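Re: beginner question about structure tokens

> Can someone show what the tokenized structure looks like for a real chain? I only ever see the sequence side.

Sure, here's an example I had lying around. Input first:
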Amino acid sequence: MSRRRSAPWIHRWSRQLIGAIAILGALDTAYLTLVEIGFFKEAACPTGGVINCQAVISSSYAKVFGVPLSLFGFLAYVAIAVFAFTPQLLKSPNNKELRSNVENWTWLLMFAGSTAMVIFSGYLVYLMSFKIKAFCIYCLASAIFSTALFVLTLIGRAWEDAGQLLFTGILVGMVSLIGTLGVYASTDQKSGPELAQQDSTVVSLPSTTPKPGIGWEITTTSGEAEIALARHLKQVGAIPYFAYWCPHCHQQKQLLGKEAYRELNAVECAADGKNGQPQVCQDAGVQGYPSWKINGKLTSGVQTLEELADATGYKGPRNFKYSLQGS
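And the corresponding structure tokens:
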């Protein structure tokens, strides 16, 4: 009498493992999305040195078509979780054929989805390593989750048609890679050098890791108009709130130039920054960086010098030397 060979444990538990990892990935990317849309002031992770979540989240690579990249990741993880658990809902004996079809299709969808995710995650790790030069632990966790999903979809069942699996993997991989490179092509063109040089009229975001507690050096020089505006801002009580690790804060400083920046009563909000005053920023209601308090109203985001001049009734010269990249 022959015994039926039992399935390997990985085949019996693969869907549950895939579903659990997908849920972890969904929670991870949901948190990042909430940080990016401003629900949380900043990500709960180190903000100095190589591990700098805020530098990654604030970079130009963190959004695709103006939408937080983490939101796309959240939707992908939710889809994988749905695919993993759907066959479990079809346990009735009357649904055997339907369940078999659903299992086959969801396995293929999970494989295709995880293939696209692992390629995209790999490119994001490349960006963090060589473009942003800072790492976010939540982004790295997502890369690990997507890799685990890809491996589990490969070994989690006995694939009958290896040729179809290989063809699907190559096709999805090529489409994912080409799509990823296409999406980021314009961003890479804008990245350019780390900072605008002194003879440039355009300032861009830094692409290196900030010095702990200090940030990036201001390399632009102020003209007469920038200095006059800075003195006016100080006179009318305009207060800028910065965090040394914030790339957009540095961009704001670059717009002003080092001489004009010294005229301001800027507040450092990072607790580990030079002369950090996090409680002052918290009491002021600061939610994002940079922020400006003008006439009792708090405004977040990089402000052009024209916008600062208009908001404070500045009447001096406006031949400002610098502008924002892409403006």
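Each token stands for a local structural state, so reading them left to right follows the chain. DSSP finds eleven helices and eight strands in the chain.
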